[in-house]
Amino acid sequence: MEVTALSNAKVGSAGVVESIDLPEEVSHHLAHLGFLPGTSVEVLRRAPAGDPRVYRIDGVEVGLRNETAKHIYLRLNAEDTGEAA
Amino acid sequence: MSCHAPAEELVQEVPEPVVPGAKKRFRTVALIGPPNCGKSTLFNRLTGMRQKVANYPGVTVEHHSGKMKSIGRSDLTLIDLPGIYSLATYSEDARVAVEVLTGKMPGVPVPDCVLLVLDSTHMNRQLMLAAPVFSIGLPTLVLLNMSDQLEARGGKIDTLALAKELGHPVALISAAQGKNLDVIPEFLLRAGSKEDDGLRPVQLPILQSAASCRTWATQVTGRTKYQAPQAALWTRRLDSVLLHRVWGPLVFLAVVFAVFQVVFTIGQPLSDGMGTLLTSWGAKAALVLPDNWLRLLLRDGLWNGVQSVLVFLPQILLLFLFIGILEDSGYLARAALIADRVMRAIGLNGKAFIPLLSAYACAVPAIMATRTIENKRERLATIMVAPFMTCSARLPIYTLIIAAFIPNEKFLGGVIGLRAMVMLSLYGLGFLAALITAKMLNSSVMKASAAPFILELPQYRWPTVQSLTLRLYDRGMLFLKKAGTVILGVTFLVWVFSVLPIHGGQFSDIATSMIGRLGHWIEPVLRPLGFNWKIGIGLLSSIVAREVIVGTLGTLYGMDPATHAVGLQAALRHDMTLGGAIALVVFFAFAMQCTSTLAVVRRETNSWKLPALQFAYMTVVAYVAALVTNQVIIHLF
């Protein structure tokens, strides 16, 4: 059960949001899209240029730049832990 | 129209509530919901085509309101509040919503009740808005929208249990299909009376905390046994192609190309045809009028001005149809995701891509389309650069000058023409100016902000005819009204100054008129650019709209005895140097010769500051660039 930045998680891996280290205004917006500690999130795909990437959280698909995703930490699910190192 | 049928079923005059102890009559209903919940579709369903669009005083947030005619309640005004996730006042949109709901918005009556629209396919997230809305204390009907999608993908909601949990009536509807909308007039009737619906207020979570609202929402959906629907398979499948590393950008480029094709291959002939039609109408109408000053004013003054705007309507409507299809289908969000990387390099957001693309047809719809950019500074930066894109109003003067001054030479076995190359370089010049301006704004005044790129990717959907029609109607009317009034006013003034003063009951010649004297007066400033006084007047008149210069020059050279027998191209060749001619198109590549754009920038930003700055900046850039062009050409040839 490894904690990593969302931007470091591989496409296809999934985990649970651990913490979010972003300004109040941004984290508030993200919270209403489902980015809250305890919610499960999946790295769905990358945009063709590699960044932003698309995350599936609580049934919704959200595109985030890596510069934002690197401040969101998640605890990877057991089966994904090995790959994400 | 078939899509109106469900609404018509509801049109039955609802009698005044005669329930004993009826409260004061309802007048105002507020419609609120998170972004992408289908709120606008519902608003259109309830109000039909008749809606008013205005800006709230002091803010850039748009205010839509309309009478609830489609459900037989023309006595009720429905106010469409901006789409928001919460009432926490981080954004201008949320501040507006709170002020309207609490009756603190000047000029907007306090709502008597609220229709809260939520997307039934994402209840955990959507319910987070319910708590703060309930806390306002107005009678509220919770409308769980998109029931068709929920059912199709195997989701379930117990509306009765949910109503008890929320303490407010709940109904499952489909705004897109017009299903179950009769709950709305029923609610409005009941809420206006003191009749007891058996629902009691419930304990609400801590409203300031998103986490607390979320926990509450999850508990509510858990207790009412909400079953979220399956993921939309088609969206996944389509995205694996449309966001594919290779296919994604290819489809994207094809879409960009298609937009150009629409504007140039279909839109241009339509605009030309419209121009011919309008000219012939004007000529016919002129025959009926007596040959006096009134005919001159109506035909040469007002009709020509209005016509120069109207000819762009087909192109603008086509563009909005195109953008509407892209947006409603969900592709626009994907396009923004793909474009984000490139846009970021110049300090803009991926969402600026579509507005900038449509600016190639006209900056007015482009600036209106910047509404999708939530970040204010990025939105202003996009508004600043959009008018540099080569809009279709520049084409008449480009075509005229190129045809008159550039020889029709071909290179590479006739594949590349010199004229086409000059035209392309003018497009490139505008794009370069936009790029440099964006970069400059980013590194100084509008430093890249902390607000990040957060983009919700909605599911793919078929755009509905009703939604597209309304969009075209809405934007078309806005374009005609806002731009039309300004154009009409300025055209009138230009005409008046071109015939005054009156000597012995006769209008002045244009050369001795006030505008002619103004032309001679400004000539010294324009001579280094290679422009004479007639071009000067052309420039002044084209502040109204770029294409006006062609008409003005036609009139001026037509009235001049030395050139009146030859065509406009020959007249220009006789009267201008190559340097001056090229300087003229370079001037047009950069200058803000468009009152419609200035008016729409004012409307969108609610102040004259930005349009004034934009006008000054673009005129200075245009002047310097034209000066350099003319001087360089003089010294080279």
Description of the structure:
The complex is a heterodimer of chains A (85) and B (637). Chain A is α+β, with helices and mostly antiparallel strands and 85 residues long. Chain A is 24% helix and 38% strand. Chain A has helices at residues 24-32, 66-69, 78-84; strands at residues 3-5, 14-20, 40-46, 53-57, 60-64, 72-76. A six-stranded antiparallel β-sheet of chain A has the order 1-6-2-3-4-5. The longest helix of chain A has 9 residues, at 24-32. In chain B, helix 16 (363-369) runs parallel beside helix 26 (595-605), helix 18 (395-405) runs antiparallel to helix 25 (578-590) and helix 26 (595-605) packs antiparallel against helix 27 (609-636). In chain B, 57% of the residues lie in helices and 8% in strands. Chain B has 637 residues and is of the alpha/beta class. Chain B is built from 27 helices and ten strands. Chain B has a seven-stranded mixed β-sheet, sandwiched between helices. A two-stranded antiparallel ribbon of chain B has the order 8-9. In chain B, strand 2 (52-55) and strand 3 (62-68) form a beta hairpin. Strand 5 of chain A pairs antiparallel with strand 10 of chain B.
